[in-house]
Amino acid sequence: MKSKLIVLLIVFTTAEISLADNNYPIFLIHGFFGWGREEMYGNYYWGGDFDLETYLNENGFEVYTLSVGPISSDWDRAIEAFYQIKGGQVDYGKLHSDEFGIIQKPNGKFYEGLYPQWDSKHPIHIIGHSQGGQTARMLEYLLQNSFEEESQLLNNAHNGWIKSITTISAPLNGTTLAPMMMDLFPFAQKMAKWLGAVKEDKILEKFYDFDLEQWGLAKNPSESTKEYFKRIKELPFGDSKNFASWDLSLEGAKEFNSKYLTDKNTTYFSFSTSATKLDDNSNHHIPDGEIQWNLWLTAYLLGKGEVPDSLWYENDGIVNTISMVMPSSGEHGVEPSKIYDGVSVPGVWQFMKKINADHHKVIGRGPGNNNPQPVINLFTKHCKLLESLD
Known about the structure:
By secondary structure, the chain is an alpha/beta fold. It has helices at 2-18, 52-58, 74-86, 94-100, 131-144, 178-184, 187-196, 202-207, 225-233, 244-248, 250-259, 296-302, 373-387, and strands at residues 26-29, 63-65, 88-89, 110-111, 124-129, 162-168, 267-273, 276-278, 285-287, 337-339, 349-355.
């Protein structure tokens, strides 16, 4: 009898262990205007007042939060993500830096590395929210290809380094809000420049950091404020394609999708969000009861603005819902895709589900959003799924 109990215990324990087929770390990449753990005085990008990263780590997962340029291009953000994970001096590449007039290896952007053993034998999972999903894909693209550069990342291809990519509320085909960002919210660029002048203020930097050293937007110690603003005024910052607004636009997303190819060895998951409903008097969409007040206006504008077709009216206040499902706007058409059926398939974009939540609420943020349980349930379940991948 005792021996049978021992056998049963061994079988049970083995079954439990087999549920986790890999123990690869999970990296979180924030979206447009996002921030890192040391900023915003304890208001976390992932979880709001609730510390999602700490919760997941305390519950058996290995999770890290990355902090990349909040208004930078996906190329620059992906480069920064690579060196934060692997370690080393950020190098945006000579050709890219020359083309856009940025500093190739800016001072102050050297990282010890959160996971320096990262390689094909030690791959990672990436979860990207909003622009973070596009940044994850750009990082995959940079790893897949050789750009004949001397940098650690761009010198040759690095295949098999990413086990999975999960996108949440990501503008995989762009968002029709992108042009409105510049028309309605031009302060984004202006604020970045002005705050750069006081970057030496460690209190402000702890609150929010634009990470724009590559643009020379850090005041030199011997430079007067007047000289500083004269210098940055002449930068092609606002008109450059090396900026988030281009990557987030439909045109910018299409350009990238035409270069990007799904990797047959990477497993992909996508979640969409929606916080609008069909207007009874038109084919437009209007905000529903799940929208938080700070996204009501943008949800309304997206729901009746200029779109490719009426399917694009549904949105979560920042991104058109249809754009979140899978990359489809490239010149080679729709990437391989299917609805997730409980069986994970590499090389295919698997649509998980549409969540009735706005762009911020889905990750636990927003005014009055003090119930962390939905975000706990979503991430705990999905992290378990990532662990189960062969």
